[in-house]
């Protein structure tokens, strides 16, 4: 593996060769990385992981790194596309199995991923989300190819039921030789360390962020004479929509001036629709359906209270957005939520209808008495809590640290797998790792690395994007030719 | 007229032949290597040996004649429909672009695209089988919207040259196109 | 800019003279159509061109001069240049060719003809002296491409995709090549001037060589007019009969829409109406449509007569009739045995005995009825076949449609069984699905088209669950009957589907277009292809334009006559779903078809 990297270093552009030579020099922190973000979840799919990857990539590009994103094909969106600032996205044609996650066989994604890693001169592979099979595949292959790996976990898991036992085992295998793991909150870190039996020292906490300029308060949008509760989340079980269905009739009976504004779409929408019809609350509960990210602020500023009913959450971006728009936040006390906001900005309740109702009642009472802080003061406090630049800086440090570490060669990797993951699972996955290595050797024999064309850089130290921003090559939407 | 050696995406050597007919008319021909006798022999022998093995156990002579027929028909099919001997691109300034590919049997498929329909020639990236490759393609204009692209015509589809070869063709194509527009 | 000159190949060796053709506006290209030789009187040339312009509707003009110097002709240069003042044009081409050389030399003079410069190496160059810019330092090089074309082929060929009717003035003008093809095709009157005519003008261009054949064609055209009138008269009588009120009453109307013979009859009537219209076909598509219909009609009738000659030789009809009745009998016997098997324990399955017996007896009675019906019919079958065979003289398609109808009538019992089985099965499936919802405390909301939750009474739940259980346990028996009869039905449907497909195939296959593609490939052009003629260094670029014929598959696609089978039909998945929920399937063409 070391040999392969040396060959690659010789082939690269002169400045990159300088960088390669300076690996051992003290100026390590100046080094620019070629980062490959891998996840099943990326735009046009919407959600927290997607915007995290996008924002982080943009900030890293701004810092002069080269970033490419790899995800699976979404419907007709296949092939190679460019986003803002030359962020290159590979939509690989892999079969989607369930919930936008690809099917994994541990092997079939290797040829395409290898092609991406080789042609883009990737040095760090950064995988996101433990739900994403593609991210785990990419970690596995990257380790086989001798690349440094980082993993970001965005969600919490249980320990009790059969499915979590299995997923936790897989996570253990996947993370046991990953160089570094990033979690979004301390709760999440604790959870991940326990689940994957990790050494806590290689786990960092870097919270998510919001763009504060996008979420500014505007009290003039609020309607006088009524109190509006805003809920913005996907309407799924994990987000506690059944709780919401219990809260709505109870509070609406007590407070005739209470209105609900619910944005989002999902299988649990029918629960809310039935509640609305049963209690005839059509004028007071508005279901807005799926919202685009740019419309979220327009909905948030119409409300007084932001309600979050999640049953499990690693780091809740929605409540930060709500607070940034100057709303009073009421949330369940689950996962990493208590860490996110200072205590006086958030009212925490137990995840039950009664407790949430009580919490909402107190906030409504505060509102009526006028003892809540003004929206602009809340915004001023939240504004500098979480910014993407900060996240990018901290992530960059992780990359610097990872780049200094060595990637385990195959023999030590096998030993570690067997020592770390138990005799049965460890042996199975050690066998799979050997097969993966042999498959890689076969691919290298079929299509040698030097036959692959090196991709034209759009970003990074030699990026062509800014210099030729008007060049016609990049402007066209990329189409794919599948034969 | 000049010949240069390049390789295609799987590392096989191909040759690019640029012919300058005049300052605004150029022809590029990418030729793949010919059908190698060795390969033909290997395939033929494999089929015949298999047929002989079947014949040995079943004693049906029709198997042998069938094998001969299969190799002949397979060979004809291969050189007539599969094996592309060379592909050429004729760029005539202000008239259009002609794309033709000729098979090993001499069959030739030609399409001519008028200049008024062409928006541009670009190098694009695509996922092909289990690789990500660069390819050259012609963008066609949408007649209703002059700025939109209605479809894409990939060039050198069967020989698939590597980037350095494509860049060479791309540059001289752009030279002609920019003159005539 | 590059100037394109489309030059006919037949004028390569023409004597010196004037080039007649057309400038294509907006594209910087000229189409040369003919060469008018010396000597001529300029006034006559002008009159001739005006006359031609009126006849063809093409903006013809004198493009320039052509010179092919022969021995002893010197000093033409100045004379040719003077000609441009006689025929004032914006640009004046002066094309010349030297003996022994293949390349042409072209000079272009602008309107005022102030300055024409020719490069030393014969390269045609015009240096435009822009009076406004003084001494014209800006050298606007004008290059020339000669595109040689074969005038006859270009004139006769039709560029695809064909244009529909009038050109919409709002959209873009047609492309350069299309304009060029149109120009050549429209200037047919120009080509009528024979080279042996003793007129005042002599010219070189493509000339038809088969005058005699074209006279015969004209005579034939005249002869078809009374024939068309006769057919129209017959058709009007036929449509009058068809429109009599009796036929529009419900049972007859319904029957005739389902019998494929009647469908075929109305279809053929429509075809004949198209063919017999006395107006000549306007436009290429209509002409091709007519020709295709005529050719497929003739082929159809020829095949039908072949079939007839086979049927009535050696008494094949009675042989067929004698085998048909035993076959029907045999089928009924087999069905009876199948039912007996189903009433026992088929394939070792344990059925609900009571329901099984009821269903089995019901079907057995049907078969009994059917057998007696067949025996009643048997003396007449030979007669029916004999007269039915006569329909083959109308075409093979009629015979096939009749066969399909007869099969449908002879397997009516299978159809009945299938319908009973399917209805029963369908009912059970619907009942089960709604009771399953009740079981889960849900119900189907018809207004909102979705499943709502609903709270039921205890009684309702009790009855519902009871019914659900009963239906669930009776389902296998019904499902087995349904399965067996559906398979039988599918066999029949498959056979009828094949017959319908072959009828459709004969009706819609574009035989004429395909024949044209094989014998005269240039008539249907997909586009053009260019090849570089070997050029001498220094002269302008010479290209040879050839016509790229349409692909066979495209010909079939474009010219097939539209029939029912061209419409989108159900996919396989939809068919399987229909079979699964027990909806009825039909072989009729406008419903789903099982075979493709």
TrEMBL record, chain A:
Membrane-related topology note: Single-pass membrane protein
GO biological process, one term: GPI anchor biosynthetic process
One GO cellular component term: glycosylphosphatidylinositol-N-acetylglucosaminyltransferase (GPI-GnT) complex
EC number(s) from the headed UniProt entry: 2.4.1.198
Chain ranges passing through the membrane: 422-447
Compartmental location: Endoplasmic reticulum membrane
Pfam assignment, any one: Glycos_transf_1
EC top class, as a word: transferase
Annotated region (Disordered), positions in chain: 1-24
Recorded metabolic or biological pathway in which this protein acts: Glycolipid biosynthesis; glycosylphosphatidylinositol-anchor biosynthesis
All residue ranges annotated as the PIGA GPI anchor biosynthesis domain in the record: 72-161
GO MF term list: phosphatidylinositol N-acetylglucosaminyltransferase activity
UniProt main location, coarse: endoplasmic reticulum
UniProt keyword Membrane, yes or no: yes
Matches recorded under InterPro entries: Glyco_trans_1, PIG-A/GPI3, PIGA_GPI_anchor_biosynthesis
Domain Glycosyl transferase family: start-end pairs: 218-345
Keyword Transmembrane attributed: yes
Gene3D superfamilies found in the cross-reference section: Glycogen Phosphorylase B
Keywords annotated in UniProt: Endoplasmic reticulum, Glycosyltransferase, GPI-anchor biosynthesis, Lipid metabolism, Membrane, Phosphoprotein, Transferase, Transmembrane, Transmembrane helix
PANTHER family: N-ACETYLGLUCOSAMINYL-PHOSPHATIDYLINOSITOL BIOSYNTHETIC PROTEIN, PHOSPHATIDYLINOSITOL N-ACETYLGLUCOSAMINYLTRANSFERASE SUBUNIT A
Homology family: Belongs to the glycosyltransferase group 1 family. Glycosyltransferase 4 subfamily.
Biological role stated in the UniProt entry: Catalytic subunit of the glycosylphosphatidylinositol-N-acetylglucosaminyltransferase (GPI-GnT) complex that catalyzes the transfer of N-acetylglucosamine from UDP-N-acetylglucosamine to phosphatidylinositol and participates in the first step of GPI biosynthesis.
Record-given protein name: Phosphatidylinositol N-acetylglucosaminyltransferase subunit A
Organism: Parambassis ranga
High-level lineage: Eukaryota, Metazoa, Chordata, Craniata, Vertebrata
From TrEMBL, chain B:
Keyword hit for Phosphoprotein: no
Record-linked InterPro entries: PIG-H (IPR044215), PIGH-H_dom (IPR019328)
GO molecular function: glycosyltransferase activity
GO cellular component terms given for this protein: glycosylphosphatidylinositol-N-acetylglucosaminyltransferase (GPI-GnT) complex
Keyword Glycosyltransferase (UniProt): yes
Segments forming domain Phosphatidylinositol N-acetylglucosaminyltransferase subunit H conserved: 88-157
Pathway per the UniProt entry: Glycolipid biosynthesis; glycosylphosphatidylinositol-anchor biosynthesis
GO biological process terms held by the UniProt record: GPI anchor biosynthetic process
One Pfam family this sequence matches: PIG-H
Segments traversing the membrane: none
Keywords: Glycosyltransferase, Transferase
PANTHER family reported for this sequence: PHOSPHATIDYLINOSITOL N-ACETYLGLUCOSAMINYLTRANSFERASE SUBUNIT H
The family this protein is said to belong to: Belongs to the PIGH family.
Record protein name field: Phosphatidylinositol N-acetylglucosaminyltransferase subunit H
Naturally occurring in which organism (per UniProt): Parambassis ranga (Indian glassy fish)
TrEMBL record, chain C:
Signal peptide: none
Origin superkingdom: Eukaryota
Membrane-traversing stretches: 230-250, 293-312, 358-377, 384-411, 417-439, 460-484, 490-514
Any one GO cellular component localisation term in the record: membrane
Gene Ontology terms, MF aspect: glycosyltransferase activity
Region entry Disordered, spans: 116-137
Pfam families for this protein: Gpi1
Gene Ontology biological process terms in this record: GPI anchor biosynthetic process
Keyword entries, A-Z: Glycosyltransferase, Membrane, Transferase, Transmembrane, Transmembrane helix
Name the record gives this protein: Phosphatidylinositol N-acetylglucosaminyltransferase subunit Q
């Amino acid at each position: 593996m070391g040999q392969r990297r040396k060959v690659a270093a010789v082939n690269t552009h002169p400045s990159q060769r300088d960088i390669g030579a300076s690996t051992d020099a003290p100026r390590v922190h100046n080094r620019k990385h070629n980062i490959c973000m891998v996840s099943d979840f990326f735009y046009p799919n919407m959600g927290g992981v997607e915007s995290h990857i996008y924002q982080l990539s943009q900030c890293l590009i701004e810092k002069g790194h080269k970033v490419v994103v790899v995800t699976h094909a979404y419907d007709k969106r296949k092939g190679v596309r460019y986003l803002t600032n030359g962020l290159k996205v590979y939509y690989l044609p892999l079969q989607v199995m369930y919930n936008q996650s690809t099917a994994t066989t541990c092997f079939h994604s290797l040829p395409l991923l290898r092609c991406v890693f080789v042609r883009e001169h990737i040095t760090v592979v950064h995988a996101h989300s433990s739900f994403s099979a593609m991210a785990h595949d990419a970690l596995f292959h990257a380790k086989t190819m001798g690349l440094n790996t980082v993993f970001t976990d965005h969600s919490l898991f249980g320990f009790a039921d059969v499915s979590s036992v299995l997923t936790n085992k897989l996570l253990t295998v996947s993370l046991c030789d990953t160089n570094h793991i990033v979690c979004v909150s301390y709760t999440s870190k604790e959870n991940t360390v326990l689940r994957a039996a990790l050494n806590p020292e290689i786990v960092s906490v870097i919270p998510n962020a919001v763009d504060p300029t996008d979420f500014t308060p505007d009290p003039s949008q609020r309607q006088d004479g009524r109190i509006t509760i805003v809920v913005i989340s996907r309407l799924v079980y994990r987000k506690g929509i059944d709780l919401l269905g219990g809260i709505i009739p109870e509070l609406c009976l007590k407070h005739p001036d209470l209105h609900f504004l619910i944005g989002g779409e999902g299988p649990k929408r029918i629960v809310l629709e039935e509640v609305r019809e049963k209690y005839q609350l059509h004028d007071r509960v508005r279901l807005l359906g799926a919202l685009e990210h740019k419309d979220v602020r327009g909905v948030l500023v119409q409300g007084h209270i932001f309600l979050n009913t999640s049953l499990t959450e690693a780091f809740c971006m929605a409540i930060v957005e709500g607070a940034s728009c100057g709303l009073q936040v009421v949330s369940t006390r689950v996962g990493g939520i208590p860490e996110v906001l200072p205590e006086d900005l958030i009212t925490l309740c137990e995840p039950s209808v009664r407790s949430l109702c009580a919490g909402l009642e107190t906030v409504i009472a505060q509102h009526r008495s006028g003892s809540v802080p003004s929206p602009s003061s809340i915004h001023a406090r939240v504004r500098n809590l979480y910014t993407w630049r900060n996240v990018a800086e901290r992530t960059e440090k992780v990359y610097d640290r990872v780049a200094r570490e060595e990637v385990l060669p195959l023999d030590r990797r096998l030993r570690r797998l067997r020592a770390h993951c138990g005799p049965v699972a460890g042996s199975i996955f050690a066998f799979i790792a050997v097969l993966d290595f042999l498959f890689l050797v076969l691919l290298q024999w079929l299509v040698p690395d030097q036959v692959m064309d090196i991709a034209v850089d759009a970003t990074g130290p030699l990026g062509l994007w800014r210099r030729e921003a008007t060049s016609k090559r990049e402007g066209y939407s990329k189409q794919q030719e599948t034969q | 007229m000049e010949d240069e050696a390049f390789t295609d995406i799987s590392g096989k050597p191909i040759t690019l032949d640029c012919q300058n007919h005049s300052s605004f008319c150029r022809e590029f021909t990418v030729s793949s290597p010919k059908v190698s006798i060795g390969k033909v022999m290997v395939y033929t022998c494999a089929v015949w040996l298999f047929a002989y093995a079947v014949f040995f156990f079943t004693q049906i002579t029709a198997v042998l004649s069938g094998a001969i027929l299969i190799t002949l028909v397979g060979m004809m099919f291969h050189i007539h429909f599969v094996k592309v001997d060379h592909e050429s691109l004729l760029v005539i300034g202000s008239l259009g672009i002609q794309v033709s590919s000729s098979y090993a049997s001499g069959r030739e498929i030609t399409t001519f695209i008028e200049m008024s329909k062409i928006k541009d020639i670009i190098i694009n990236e695509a996922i092909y089988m289990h690789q990500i490759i660069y390819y050259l393609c012609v963008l066609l204009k949408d007649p209703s919207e002059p700025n939109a692209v209605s479809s894409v015509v990939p060039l050198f589809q069967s020989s698939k040259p590597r980037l350095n070869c494509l860049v060479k063709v791309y540059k001289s194509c752009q030279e002609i196109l920019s003159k005539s527009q | 800019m590059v100037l394109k000159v489309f030059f006919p190949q037949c004028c390569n060796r023409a004597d010196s003279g004037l080039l007649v053709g057309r400038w294509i506006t907006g594209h910087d290209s000229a189409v040369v159509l003919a060469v008018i030789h010396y000597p001529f009187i300029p006034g006559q040339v002008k009159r001739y061109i005006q006359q031609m312009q009126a006849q063809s509707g093409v903006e013809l003009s004198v493009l320039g001069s052509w010179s092919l110097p022969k021995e002893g002709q010197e000093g033409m240069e100045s004379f040719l240049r003077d000609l441009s003042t006689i025929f004032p044009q914006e640009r004046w081409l002066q094309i010349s060719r030297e003996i022994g050389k293949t390349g042409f030399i072209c000079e272009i003079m602008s309107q005022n003809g102030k300055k024409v410069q020719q490069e030393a190496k014969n390269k045609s160059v015009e240096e435009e002296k822009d009076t406004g810019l003084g001494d014209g330092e800006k050298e606007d090089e004008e290059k020339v491409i000669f595109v040689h074309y074969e005038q006859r082929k270009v004139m006769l060929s039709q560029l695809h995709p064909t244009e529909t009717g009038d050109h919409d003035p709002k959209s873009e003008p047609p492309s350069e090549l299309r304009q060029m093809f149109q120009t050549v095709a429209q200037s047919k009157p120009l080509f009528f001037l024979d080279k042996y005519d003793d007129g005042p003008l002599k010219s070189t261009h493509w000339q038809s060589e088969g005058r005699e054949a074209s006279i015969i064609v004209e005579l034939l055209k005249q002869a078809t007019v009374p024939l068309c009138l006769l057919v129209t008269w017959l058709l009007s009588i036929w449509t009058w009969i068809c429109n009599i009120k009796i036929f529009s009453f419900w049972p007859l109307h319904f029957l005739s829409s389902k019998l494929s013979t009647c469908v075929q009859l109305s279809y053929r009537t429509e075809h004949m109406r198209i063919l017999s219209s006395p107006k000549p076909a306007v436009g290429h598509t209509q002409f091709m449509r007519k020709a295709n219909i005529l050719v497929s009609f003739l082929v159809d009738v020829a095949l039908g007569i072949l079939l007839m000659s086979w049927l009535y030789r050696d008494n094949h009809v009675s042989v067929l009739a004698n085998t048909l009745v035993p076959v029907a009998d045999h089928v009924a016997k087999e069905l009876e045995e199948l039912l007996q098997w189903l009433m026992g324990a088929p394939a070792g399955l344990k059925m609900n005995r009571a329901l099984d017996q009821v269903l089995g007896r019901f079907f057995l009675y049907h078969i009994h009825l059917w057998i007696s019906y067949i025996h009643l019919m048997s003396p007449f079958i030979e007669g029916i076949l004999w007269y039915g065979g006569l329909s083959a003289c109308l075409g093979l398609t009629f015979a096939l449609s009749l066969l399909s109808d007869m099969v449908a009538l002879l397997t009516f019992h299978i159809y009945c069984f299938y319908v009973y089985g399917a209805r029963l099965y369908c009912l059970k499936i619907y009942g089960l699905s709604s009771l399953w919802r009740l079981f889960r405390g849900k119900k189907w909301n018809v207004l909102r088209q979705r499943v709502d939750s609903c709270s039921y009474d205890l009684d309702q739940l009790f009855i519902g669950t009871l019914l659900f259980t009963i239906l669930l346990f009776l389902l296998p028996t019904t499902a087995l009957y349904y399965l067996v009869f559906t398979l039988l039905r599918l066999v029949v449907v498959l056979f009828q589907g094949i017959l319908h497909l072959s009828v459709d195939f004969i009706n819609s296959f574009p035989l004429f277009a395909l024949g044209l593609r094989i014998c005269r490939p240039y008539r249907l052009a997909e586009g053009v292809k260019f090849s570089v003629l070997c050029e001498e260094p220094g002269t302008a670029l010479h290209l040879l334009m050839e016509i790229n014929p349409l692909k066979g598959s495209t010909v079939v696609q474009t010219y097939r006559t539209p029939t029912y089978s061209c419409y989108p039909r159900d996919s396989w998945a939809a068919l399987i779903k229909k079979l699964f929920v027990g909806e009825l399937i039909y072989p009729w063409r406008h419903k789903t078809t099982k075979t493709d």
